[in-house]
Amino acid sequence: QVQLVESGGGLVQAGGSLRLSCAASGRTFSTDVLGWFRQAPGKEREFVGCIRWIGRNTYYADSVKGRFTISRDNAKNTLHLQMNVLKPEDTAVYYCAAMPSGNYRNPASYAYWGQGTQVTVSS
To answer: How far apart are CA 29 and CA 40, in angstroms?
Structure first.
């Protein structure tokens, strides 16, 4: 089992920044990809971005590309999501997730999920 705990959400004005963190514990060696997803009220959970534990490759949704940056600290088993130039449409519950392998854009590929953290961007 892998446990994931997000932190860092909150309320911010449009144009502002937030940094989310996700602390991983347990059998993290059984996973390869760490992802961020978000879900707004009444909408489906959508892919934000992901990174592998090993290597530098990152992938982002077009809606956040150039504004959001994913990074990881392997020594601390921690994943980060730096969000800049936030927009009201970024308002959602943000989740981190982990999987051994699969389609990184598909939430169904991820076996492990955090509890989520609320991000609210006011206009």
So the answer is: 31
